Amino acid sequence: MLAHLSIRNYLLVESVELDFAPGLTVLTGETGAGKSILIDALALALGDRAEGGVVRSGAARAEIAAEFVIEGQPALVRWLDEAGFAADDGMLILRRVIEAGGRSRAFINGSAAPLAQLKEAAEFLLDIHGQHAHHALLRPQTQREVLDAYAGAQATAAAVATAWHAWQSARQRRLDAESSGQARQIEREGLQLAVEELRALGDNLARWDEIQTEHARLSHVTTLIEGSQALIAGLDEDESAVSSRLGELGARLDAMQTVDGSLQEVATLLHSASADLAEAVHALRRYSNHLNLDPERLDELDRLLSDMHRLARKHRVQPDALAGLLEQFQARLAALDASDDLDALQASEAAAIAHYQQAAQQLSAQRSKAALALAKQVTAAMHELALAGGRLDIQLQPVSEPRAHGLEDVGFLVASHTGLPPGLLARVASGGELSRISLAIQTALSGVAGVPTLIFDEVDVGIGGSVAEAVGRRLARLGETRQVLVITHLPQVAARGTQHLRVAKQASGGFVSSNIELLDADARVEELARMLGGIKITATTRQHAAEMLAG
Q1: Among 131, 129, 143, 139, CA closest to 463
Q2: 100-125 burial: b if 16+ Cβ within 10 Å, else e
Q3: What is the DSSP string of 149-193?
Q4: Which of 17, 25, 115, 477 has its CB surrounded by the most CB atoms within 10 Å?
């Protein structure tokens, strides 16, 4: 339930704090006072798109915060936990900040959140029925969506659409295989040749760095042998070898150490150098023993590197990328083989259409059952709303071929009076009749919706008199089980509210503002009298207003 709404610097509103109660809340005000501002601001807190132009003139930012009581909504609490937004003592706060430059930020229980998550949370909280909802009802797509919503079949409808697209994809793959087999055969032959050439290089494809290193060593093996031998001779074998000189110098240092013990550290370092030198000579001998002139292996590496460079140039890649290229070619060959398996493709297509038919038939059954119930409920509501003798028929017309929305088109046919044949809603209903039919449908949907709060934005446009009284009674009855907020210009509807808010414009300091206030009993009488009598309010209109509130 919506418990509190705070609006700062939004359009004509400078600052408003509103507390909401259960039941039916009505919002009234003169034309142009900004009655829809409250709904528009609330929609922003629930994730609607925002622009910098909504910020009040002279202000840096607008801020809207909506606070909801979410006790008794375990699905929403579970969603908040999974999304990382802990519920605070059974309360949920959605906040939106819009900068004058257009930048927008959103928060859930004080934590930053993307708009998509605000919209997800809103699906648990409320439904907004706009003043132009009855116009959308003329579209076949909207009528189908209304029936699916009433049937609780949105998930099934989504599954049908998914299955239809999967079937279309399977069908297209089969058609492509039948129509472009020659082109794929040419591609396959080219890939097979490329794969054979790359496979001929074997494991060497993945050894590019090793092969380069080995080739460089064999290409310079003579230089390496001569250098190793010269180093060994200079370090250990010649008469003036470094090892001999280190030995002599070490002996002399040892003699000096017997005279002065402070030379011990120097002697240790020199002995360590002698040991390191011996290890280096030993390593050089091992290295030299493994150096062999191998012209045959060098020729083999020359050919191998030449082949790798040639294939790399051919496929316009670096030589070290040839191994990955082979994997790509093999995967594409496998895909071509699969795409040319017509039996498998036909079987896949058959399975896809069977899956679609199963889901679509389930959807058709849900629609058929719901169509009767919805038509009966809306027809009863039409009678209550001064359309006695009228009725709504919901037609399910089989389609010529399977569609993404199922196996039938949905059409709302209406007869506004007894004896008239039902016709298309767009052709039969007048503006006022359409508004009442729309209200009947919306309240019917509200009966199956799981949200605790319903908002109606001037859905009573085009009606008055006894019809307005019927609309008021219907909304009041709905308010017995749900929290309902209605923007209205009808005193018959406003009189049914358990809470009454009024919007008024006021000018101060060159600025025009919209102010929203909660009316007490006396103020309600004055507001209803204004709605009844216009500019001139008499004792009679006040008495009439008081009687409406008492009744």
Answers
A1: 131
A2: beeebebbbbeeebebebbebbbbbb
A3: HHHT-HHHHHHHHHHHHHHHHHHHHHHHHHHSHHHHHHHHHHHHH
A4: 25
End-to-end Cα spacing for the chain: 27
Q: Round to whole Å and give the CA distance between 81 and 93.
A: 14
Beta bridge partners of 2: 68
Question: Is 462 a residue whose pLDDT tops 80?
Answer: no
Cα–Cα dist 28/524, whole Å: 10
- Three-state DSSP at 465 gives helix
Task: Report the alpha-carbon distance of residue 411 to residue 200 in Å, rounded.
Answer: 67
Token pair for 267:
């002697």
**Beta strands per DSSP E along 30-120:** 61-69, 91-99, 104-108, 111-112
Asked if the model's pLDDT at residue 167 lies above 80, the reply is yes
* Beta-carbon-side half-sphere exposure of residue 121 (alpha carbons within 13 Å): 37
Task: Tell me if 22 sits within 8 A of 14, measured CB to CB.
Answer: no
- For the stretch 177-186, pLDDT in tens is 776 666 777 7
pLDDT band for position 451 (cuts 50, 70, 90) = confident
pLDDT, one tens digit per residue, over 289-310 is: 776 666 777 778 888 888 888 9
| 336 vs 334: CA distance, rounded Å | 5
Whole-number Å distance between alpha carbons of 224 and 218: 9
CA angle 278, 284, 285 (to 5 degrees): 90
Torsion sign over Cα 57, 59, 60, 65 = negative
What are 443's two structure tokens?
């309240």
**Amino acid of residue 234:** G
φ, ψ for residue 399, nearest 5 deg:
-90, 160
Rounded-to-integer distance, Cα 521 and Cα 359, Å: 55
Q: What percent of the chain has pLDDT over 90?
A: 29
- Mean pLDDT, range 272-282, rounded to an integer: 88
Single-letter amino acid, residue 521: A
- Alpha carbon distance 547, 549 (integer Å): 5
In tens, the pLDDT along 411-442 reads 999 887 777 788 887 777 776 677 778 778 87
Residue 32 pLDDT: 66
Contact criterion met (CB below 8 Å) for 106 and 47: yes
